[in-house]
Amino acid sequence: MRVFITGASGHVGSALVPELLQHGHSVVGLARSDESAARLTGWGADAVRGDLDDHDALYAAAQAADGVVHLAFRHDAMQAGDRSGAAETDLAAVRAIADALAGTDNPLVGTSGTALLAYASLARTGTEDDSMPSGYRIDAENFVVGLADKGIRSSVVRLPPITHSTLDHHGFAPSLIAFARRNGVSPYLGDGSNRWPAVHTLDAARLYRLALESAPAGSRLHAVGDEGIEFRRIAEAIGRGLDVPARSVEAGQAAEYFGFLAPFIALDNPTSAAKTSELLDWHPTHPGLLDELADGHYFRTTE
Question: Which helix (H) or strand (E) holds 294?
């Protein structure tokens, strides 16, 4: 299968491209820069120059492919506070890709987040059957799932707030570590009992491949290894890694201690991947988040 990937040179993409190549697929990745293009060709993939706003390039690359994985997102805009702009860019890009794939029965694997379920006030562990009618990134998720009615074998992988590995240089884990290093304390809100799921990057990449190869049209999938770790335990692990104290802070201090992550820190997001595991025979095999933090590489690479 010839696979077009947006975000191919990024965090999850840097694991997915080798995963696909090793399993006999060919890959063409969207590259925003010469550096990204060189990285892709170095891995054995092809590169097409463009970005999420270049809808003609997205359409052409998707039309020439046998399947598409959409990983890219304007995280820079989100971190700068323009969440709506980032989401609008994402949805417009998915629409361009969908126009190229309509009626082909080719797969399109989109990306969303388990954290969105925290806003649904479930009061229980979230599952793949849970959804919301609209909202930030939810509109794009629902659009992709709905493409099953347009002759596209569409699916969405929901990633947890922390996707971790030595490939993770700009995600939530490095950001939490950077904030703790700056403040000299690794904070958590209140008693820190709210829970965050997590997954290893290599396990997530394998799920994207399996979704591309065989996920039924209209599937929602959960890339979850750790179903829910109390945030206090994450903060304590970061504190040990930095040799700084872990400490409770009040909700009103969230922006001071967590920067752009402040709106997410209090989320309670326990999430199951049981149905995904059964559907695609996907079972995480790599270390969990706390073991990853104990390994120490996050603290060496963020010096």
Answer: helix 289-295
Q: What is the pLDDT of residue 85?
A: 84
CA 56 to chain CA centroid, Å, is 25
Whether pLDDT at 219 is above 60? yes
Q: Report yes or no: 87 and 140 within 8 Å, Cβ to Cβ.
A: yes
Q: Token digits for 206?
A: 């394998």
Distance, CA of 282 to chain centre = 17
**Distance in angstroms (rounded) separating the CA atoms of residues 127 and 270:** 9
Q: Which residues contact 231 (CB under 8 A, 6 or more apart)?
A: 188, 189, 192, 193, 194, 195, 196, 265
Among the residues of 7-72, which ranges form H helices?
Answer: 13-22, 34-43, 55-63
pLDDT in tens, 116-139: 999 888 999 999 999 999 988 899
Strands 195-200 and 162-164: parallel
Question: Are 114 and 225 contacting, i.e. CB atoms less than 8 angstroms apart?
Answer: no
Q: What is the DSSP string of 158-226?
A: EEPSEEESTT-SSSHHHHHHHHHHHHTSEEEETT---EEEEEEHHHHHHHHHHHHHHPPTTEEEE--SE
Rounding to the nearest 10 degrees, give the CA dihedral for residues 1, 53, 171, 247. -150
First to last CA, the chain: 41
Strands 153-159 and 67-70: unpaired
